[in-house]
Amino acid sequence: MDDEGEPLSGRDRAAGFAVAWLREGVEVRWPLGNVVEVAFEEVVPVREFPSYRGQRHFPGLYWAATMLRHVGFESWLERDHAISMDFDPCVAGFSSQPFWLFWTSAEGGRLSHAPDYFARRADGSAVVVDCRPEGRRKPRDLAKFAGTQAACEAVGWDYRLVGEIDRVRVANLRWLAGFRHPRFGGAGLTEAVEAAFAVPGPLVGQAAQVGDPIRVLPVVFHLLWCGRLGTDLSRPLGDYSLVCRVEG
């Protein structure tokens, strides 16, 4: 609210923030209120992902089937959330370390933060994601996360501070991600596999009705990844997991 108690508009709340990102290798810096239409889901990272002997984190590149390109991560936690976003049918695209956010704290200190991910949903809405285990959220980090959330709210983006994903679910997603590439959807088996699971049945037994499981199961896993087949991912994926065709 302002001094007279009136609620601040989104533009007023965004006035204290600036955003910097890379465009064709050159840094661009604009006021937060002017960047709502920028396709941050397509930008390159604003900083590198260092790798050195003895580091505690495990950086790398994840190939996202959603965009058919690599996305960087700085830890296995970030990688797991990249897999989760890639699996989510509501996510149309996402990028890592998309921009720097700059602002001044209430105490007058200058703060900056590069969120872990920016994701664009299929409906056009956006979400900014920071990944940090609950036990590793220090006061200075929480201040930056709070500032980032305030900035997101000012421009109508959602903000999520996420930690560890359920162990069973993430283990299932890691496995299915191994079959995310479109090449696993070929071999002329897609229609036959979907037809076999029109009636729910056990994963391996039903796949064996189509043909040699060694040939058929990769297609099953690919269709599970794509959401054309469904199963309960809150339980460990195994031979007897109940799998069914997803209508529509």
UniProtKB/TrEMBL annotation:
Name of the protein in question: TnsA-like heteromeric transposase endonuclease subunit
Source species of the chain: Streptomyces actuosus
